[in-house]
């Protein structure tokens, strides 16, 4: 009897290992929040123009740490700190001002500090950082918004009535408006004319944000994105040798160009294009890309944002990677 049970457990683990990719399931969970941030950034840029900087890690002198800022949208009239919360279930405000989410399936309740207050705190940290870099914003120029883009997120009136909160219903109805005006929740972010002083400030602002510390980004197949920190490569010795020059200090971007099904007994191969880090320009031309050929089983070890565990992701599943300085 015990022999049959042991055989059953072995078979179950074998089945689970080869027919159910648990790591892939966890990877989907890790990518959902990051993908929501990029989705919001892309849509806001298309609707209102401007430039969105995603996945910032702004130094905070008070806590001696780096604070996460999902997105900063820069327009001609304002700087907006946007916090994207991919919440599901119902969301309400507790008596102490905190936010309480109730899950859809297990009705599990989770308590969060006020997301509006948290966004204002992060905006203040960003403003202090910009001042240290010589960018002083006019009073009222920096504002904060909380976006809840998940269609399965239901908010109470207490949440929906907050001017800083963009619930899913408001988000789904958001459309470009005539130049004469913008929607009530967004119009205060687009005001003022354009002057030489403002133009100079914007140049400093864009430079400061484009060179600010950021999370690394993985773009995966299936239109998925993950913010976090690149740790290292894992693979055969010859593959590690081929990737020996791909280091954070030297490389800013990776692109998985193509795969080959004719790798012989060694398995299929993929080509990794990588661009040298160059602080003098924003990107590398085609002639500046270098190439390494490795087995498709070679992995990237990556620490997703807000996750306690590292993930091993096959390079064959990666479209591109951006590494912060």
Describe the structure.
It is built from 7 helices and 17 strands. The protein starts with a helix and ends with a strand. The protein has an 8-stranded antiparallel beta sheet. The chain has a 5-stranded mixed beta sheet with strand order 1-2-3-7-9, sandwiched between helices. It has a 4-stranded mixed beta sheet with strand order 6-5-4-8.
Distance from N terminus to C terminus (CA atoms, Å) equals 59 Å
Number of helices: 7
Oligomeric state of shown chains: single chain
Order of helices and strands: HHEEEEEEHEEHEHHEEHEEEEEE
Approximate shape? globular
Q: Largest sheet, if any?
A: 8 strands, antiparallel
Arithmetic mean pLDDT? 82
Please state how the strands of the largest beta sheet are arranged side by side: 14-13-12-17-10-11-15-16
Q: Could you name the ranges where pLDDT drops below 50 across 5 or more consecutive residues?
A: 9-27, 179-183
Structural class: alpha+beta
* Total count of strands: 17
Q: What fraction of the residues are assigned to beta strands by DSSP?
A: 25-35%
Share of helix, binned: 25-40%
Radius of gyration: 23 Å
């Amino acid at each position: 009897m015990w022999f049959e049970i042991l055989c059953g457990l072995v078979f179950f683990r074998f089945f689970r290992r080869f027919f159910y990719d648990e790591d892939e399931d966890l990877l989907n969970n890790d990518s959902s929040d990051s993908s929501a941030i990029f989705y919001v950034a892309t849509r806001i840029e298309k609707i209102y123009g401007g430039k969105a900087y995603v996945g910032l890690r702004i130094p905070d002198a008070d806590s001696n740490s780096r604070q996460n800022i999902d997105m900063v949208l820069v327009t001609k009239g304002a700087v907006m700190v946007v916090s994207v919360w991919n919440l599901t279930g119902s969301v309400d405000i507790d008596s102490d001002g905190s936010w309480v989410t109730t899950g859809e399936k297990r009705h599990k309740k989770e308590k969060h500090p006020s997301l509006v207050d948290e966004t204002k705190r992060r905006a203040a940290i960003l403003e202090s950082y910009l001042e240290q870099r010589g960018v002083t914003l006019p009073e009222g120029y920096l504002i904060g918004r909380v976006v809840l883009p998940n269609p399965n997120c239901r908010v109470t009136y207490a949440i929906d009535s907050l001017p800083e909160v963009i619930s899913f219903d408001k988000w789904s109805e958001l459309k470009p408006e005539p130049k004469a005006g913008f929607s009530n929740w967004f119009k205060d972010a687009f005001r003022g004319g354009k002057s030489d002083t403002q133009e100079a400030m914007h140049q400093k602002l864009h430079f400061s944000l484009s060179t600010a510390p950021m999370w690394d980004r993985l773009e995966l197949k299936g239109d998925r994105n993950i913010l976090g920190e690149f740790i290292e490569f894992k693979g055969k010795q010859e593959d590690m040798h081929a990737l020996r020059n791909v280091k954070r200090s030297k490389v800013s971007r990776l692109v998985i160009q193509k795969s080959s099904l004719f790798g012989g007994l060694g398995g299929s191969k993929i080509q990794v294009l990588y661009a040298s880090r160059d602080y003098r320009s924003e990107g590398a031309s085609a002639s500046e890309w270098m190439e390494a050929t490795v087995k498709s089983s070679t992995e990237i070890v990556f620490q997703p944002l807000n996750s306690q565990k590292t993930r091993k992701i096959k390079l064959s599943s990666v479209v591109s990677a951006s590494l912060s300085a």
